[in-house]
User: Fold these one by one.
Assistant:
Number 1:
Amino acid sequence: MPINIPRELPAKTILEKERIFVMDDLRAVTQDIRPLNIVILNLMPEKEKTETQLLRLLGNSPLQVNITLLYPATHETKTTSQIHLDQFYKTFGEIKHRKYDGMIITGAPIEHLPFEEVDYWPELVAIMDWAKTNVTSTLHICWGAQAGLYHHFGIEKYNLPQKCSGVFRHHLVDEPIKLLRGLDDQFCSPHSRHTDVHKEAIEQHPDLLLLSHSDEAGVYLVMSKDERFIFITGHPEYDAETLQQEYMRDLSKGLDIHMPAYYFPGDNPDNKPVKTWRSHAYLLFMNWLNYYVYQETPYIWE
């Protein structure tokens, strides 16, 4: 899928070097087709890294995608320059009059806080409520998944005794769900979080479907029964070295942190990590775009 992104966005150069099909505004206007409009609410601190990771996965289908990058106006970011935000990002107030085919809500390293104590929680609630009528399908990742499950369905998160960090094996629930088409019965995906949701709470909720879980990492993939909301508790978008960078960062802070599980070859942090979840991540995002965005969105939004 050619991704239509601003010519100056740093991710564009990185993706072109990886031979990911991207195009800028000038070329996009020459194509007489109806592109998908996807808004990404980026809550991660290092926004440029997350942009690249998500755009890489969205560039793997034969349709054109227009991307709108969004950040919470009620939060002061300390790790992304205001120049970058002003040049490439919108605020909710600037886009709330629009309709979008799909939306992605990223994770955020704030699991230790109760949802209501997050400074931009009221704004996030407004965005999630707006998405019910203005977005065809919303994909939630990690903390974004926990926030969505809590707001829409009342599913509480709970603190883990130690951080869940590593690349874990997951199992598919035996359901004929389009989102799961082509996925292996068992697959790997990274996790990086301090909180979790109870599997039993998902299974017992009348409006939710548990699609995948890990014996060690817990709930992984959840979908609302009306297929409007999809929740991923892990980080399939992560680069091979992301968990390594997080681990070294936490060690440098003197935190009592465990080495990411099943990640470093030979459990030796001196060894280069191997990305074992690439194909799973590509297929999962392609299934979401195809079956829950492209196939479901109206050609003309009323």
Note: The radius of gyration is 18 Å.
Number 2:
Amino acid sequence: MEQTVKIKLLPTKEQEYHLINISREYIKTVNTLVADMVQAEKILKLSSKDVHVSMPSAVKNQAIRDAKSVYRKVKKLKRVPILKKSVCIWNNQNYKIKESVIEFPVYINGKSKRIAVKAILTEYQHNLLKNQLGILRITKKSNKWIAQIAVKIPGPTQNNSDIVMGVDLGLKVPAVAVTSTGKTRFFGNGRQNKYIRRKFKSQRRELGKSKKLNAIRKLNDKETLWMKDKDHKISRTLVDFAIKNNVSVIRLEKLSNIRNTARTSRKNEKNLHTWSFYRLAQYIEYKAKLAGIKVEYVDPKYTSQICPMCGKRNHTKDRKYQCSCGFKTHRDRVAGINIINAPVIDGVA
């Protein structure tokens, strides 16, 4: 089973200069080799010695492999594709990852030399990179350098128990999980999330008065990274909770229309429109699948209002849910219970 780990790089100005050069040279080389093969009407047998460009031998060989792959697609496409986006690729024998640094060779003053570029890695990414590594692909997206590393991980063993877990996503409590056996756990701290968002907003306002646009962009990146890290940690602990309780299926609300249907007050409206429920759901889904746990999406309609005991719809006061039949509990826990039994989208529960 293969997964791609995306890592943000922080190259120095000198390193960025070398990355720009080798990326442009790489894509130019691939296009040239494809054109040569089209003219010859066959895949050419080439080695690094046949390719006279300013790149390390290992990168030349990778460019040859990529050119052959593109040429094989030419007959299906019935046209010669021209690659435009600058990129460079190294195989797994030509780069190393040391803590928060990625080392790989580039071409400097006519010689192949290794550079060590600082990388921002989460704990989860560090753990993934302990598995068998594939190719390293470096490209620039929206003025950010991104490393993409293919990782081969052991395939999961599918859990065949009959235990289902419903997960309710929200603002005050980012995630609440309830199992069909009655186990409940709350994940994340909504108050802390809102505090951090207000802090970043205040800092942006001050920087905006000084018209420090670059500083604002860096602050936005920092905030996004913080939010992603929180979502990764919540999803990781949530899936670990599912594994511990032998859960075979995790059910989530279908979030395509959450901004119209979510339970929120006016003071939480801004947070609702900036917090990524979808990203957290995606993180939960792919971590669950890696653990052999199936993920299903259900209709979110009235999940926080219907009484799990008698089926009556009730409006809640703050976080407390109480029904005339005597059932009472935390509102988000009610949603989790109802999600377990809600109709599955694209199927029947």
Note: Residues 2-152 form one domain.
